[in-house]
Amino acid sequence: MAVVSIEARPQLLRDLPLLAVAVVWGSSFWAVRQVAEDRTVVAVLVLRFGVVLPVLGVVAWRRLRGLSFAQWGGGAVLGVVLGAVFLLETYGVVHTSATNAGLVISLTMVFTPLAEAVLRRSAPPVGFLAAVGVSVLGVALLTGLRAPSVGDLLVLGAAVARTVNVLATARLRSVRGVDALALTWVQLAFATVVFALAAPFAGPSPLAVAASFDAARWGLLLYLSLLCTLFAFFVQLWAVRATSPSRVSLLLGTEPLWAALCGVLLAGDRPGRLALLGAVAVLVGTEWGRRRAPRFPAAGRELVNEGSSGRHSGSTGRVRSTTT
């Protein structure tokens, strides 16, 4: 049996929390499908972040008090975009398989640096463009070379909205240099306001949905709130100081693989041979694209290069998005 050297142990211990984040993110697509239905998506989102915001707010209180009016405004704008990400993604997950959702959303890895290159009027490397092509081909194979389902299109829209969120976070002057914890709370708060305003028109009220949940669904809702959001966020804050940005990106970039495994093992997805080939193509293409993505200087660099595999809530600096 292999023995881990003393020198390797600290790195291994630093890697395990990040790998755990990738696993819970990958499993979140399955968890969402167990908790939410078409008529309860908005109510579930209100409940999910209604749990997160008070806890995160207690920790972030002093930092929130230091934000200027402009910083609150910038966070509010990003929060509305983030709300669109959650709505598109959650509705999409409800209408497609957990495997497809986890793989399609990973296209953010290639969309973000591609969009940044367009904005900068800079030609991406040929290798990166090839990776984009492989990823898109993979999605086509996932859908069986037929018209994608409504769920697949909604998740694809969520990937585009995530890209907008990442680029806007990098480019909005009002949020540059803002503490990651404070900015994340503001974004989540304004996204939750969007959900709360939409709730009366989107199905049962959050209170009615909460009353209908059994212990299993409450457990999954808390899993999404506490592990997929709070745990993930604080692990990333710690990882920024404990390990290298490239290693953070590498480990968190394994999320699509865990999403596919959870889809097969937990959700009972049974993709055919063509879909399996598509899944492999998406995994290869997005990882290849992450490695070959153009590197840009200036304010957006950290978010584009490390956050290009973009994960779910807004943050700033070196912390990637954190929620599903």
TrEMBL record:
Membrane spanning residue stretches: 12-30, 42-61, 73-94, 100-119, 126-147, 153-170, 182-203, 215-238
Membrane topology summary: Multi-pass membrane protein
InterPro entries hit by this protein: Diverse_Substrate_Transporter (IPR051258), EamA_dom (IPR000620), EmrE-like (IPR037185)
Domain EamA span(s) in chain numbering: 18-143, 151-286
The keyword Membrane appears for this protein: yes
Presence of keyword Transmembrane: yes
GO cellular component: plasma membrane
Annotated segments matching region Disordered: 303-324
Name assigned to this protein: Drug/metabolite transporter (DMT)-like permease
